[in-house]
Hints:
The protein is mainly β.
Amino acid sequence: MIGMDVLLDNVFPNFIRIGNNVSLAGRNTILCHSNPYQHFDGAVESFVAPVVIEDNVWITIGVMLLPGVTIGKNSVIMAGSVVTRDIPPFSIAGGIPAKVIKTLGANNITAQYPN
């Protein structure tokens, strides 16, 4: 499910991979590249890196995913978070930058999704 006002990187959309049963709640931003202004030449490098959202992930409202991150399966990213590093599977993460707040056991996930 892709909610309202979700911004997917329009320069490198092919670098975004979204698994099954994923919810992007709304007002999310997924960026796969950095292209600094010319006056930052030599100080900040331009780069492109994929963003991967694995199966059964809930990206709640207002989350930003930066280039090169993977959100592990069965994870939740809390509202307003900025994800700068990988989030392992079965995690609840939040903050700026996002950090794992809680690890979920496989038995905490009760819904069964069809393949």
